[in-house]
Amino acid sequence: MIIISPSARNAKVNIMKQYALYLRKSRADVEAEARGEGETLSKHRAALTAFANQRGLFVAREYAEIVSGDTIAARPQMQQLLADVKAGLYAGVIVNDVDRLGRGDSIDQEIIKLTFAAAHTLIITPLRDIDPANPTDDDMLDFSMFMARFEYKKISQRMRQGRIRSASSGHWIASDPPFGYVISKDLRLEPDPDRAPIVRMIFDWYVSGAAGYNVIARRLNETGLRTAHGNTFSPRAIQTILHNPAYIGRVEWGRNTSVTVIENGIKTKHRRKADPVVCENAHEPLVPIEVWDAAQRRERPAPPVKRAQKLANPLAGILYCGECGRMMIRHITSNHIPTLHCIGPGCPTSGTDVAIVEEALLDALRDWCATYEHVEEAAEPDHEAEREALTKQLSVIAEQIRRAQELVELSVYSPSEYLARRAALDEKRTALEEELKLLSKPSPARKSEIIPQIRSVLDAYPMAQSVEQKNMLLRSVVRRVTYYKKIAAKRGENPGKYLTLKIEPVLSTNT
Predict the structure, then answer these.
(1) CB environment 233-256: b (16+ within 10 A), e (fewer)
(2) Model pTM?
(3) Which of 75, 140, 154, 236 is the most exposed, fewest CB within 10 Å of its CB?
């Protein structure tokens, strides 16, 4: 019997260097597959395997990324590859191009580069071998990753702009239609003859006051009706239907946006409220506007309160954090002062006394009345010419950015010159986009419609006998209040100095 010692066994393995194959689809690949141009990973696998055989490289393992994630956190195969590279398993990793390793942000790109450099692992492409530990290759890798990230951002921007154009034209670009509709071939909503009557019945029950979310859901389930996915109706599903503007023929896109923040050193995405793209009369409505408005005006149920306890927060259910979107919570400080604060982990929002926020909201409503009480309904001002001029200026800047990129590729611009030029153009573009956004905002004339109701709430509020009554009064005119405050007031300063409230009224879709 021949016994091989562990050290001898390792020496034998190290005689042949091992390499890994990393495969990942890009967004362009996904679009090409949708056009029927073949499965991308199979084509890349065949090409890279032939390349490795030609070079005499022994491929020990393949890492095939099924998903097309933007970050390392969204790509499990990349996480495993980095762990194996760090362990020194491979002399090199074979990829179709450098940008297949990652087009994420600079943090992800630096993690990939440093991991390969520390392990002295090559990045091997059909065009050339890259050694991240070599200063010259490191500079070239930095620039290649920068250009990959730049291209990725341009592709993402084009996709966003395409979605915005589609939504502005009234196309339904979400994957599923709202309950009661089907998506036509031209991507517009059409009434579903089987489910549209159910939607109208839900609105009738709710507006008439005959039933709330729970009762409506129970009635539908008892009759054997199910959602489009075959599930039973929940109160949340009924609430979503009653507040979905698609049922009055309106398409909204981008009401929520995803924002990446760093929490305890980890990138985390939060959903935030945003100004949506709105297209009126995009498709056939299922309910009249009068019924829709009545459903939005109907008094919502009071926020949940633990049994045997009374509501203690007059702003319960309507006050939300402007940073992370969570509901602001009331708690008692060590000084026995009721305070509103956000419980989101790592959220930078600073708390404020309940009484100060309550008075700030009432002051804002009073200012609203003073501003809009005598405003007459006026036609929307025509800013079409100004918008067209700004749009042309944005097109010019986009072309300048494209030409600057070409000059980099032709070595006319150095990377540092390009970055300086790009920063200046981006600053101009941002200013123009903000100006265009202001011109696109609707007139505040509709706010005058709710002034009488707000005035009656302000008159009744001081005479309210309980916190529950105060909460009901506020909820009758205010749908949501967004709370912004990152800086805590210092001793001697006005406690509400850094506080900002954004109010969304019940009777208006514009704020």
Answers:
(1) beeebbbebbebbbbbbbbebeee
(2) 0.42
(3) 236
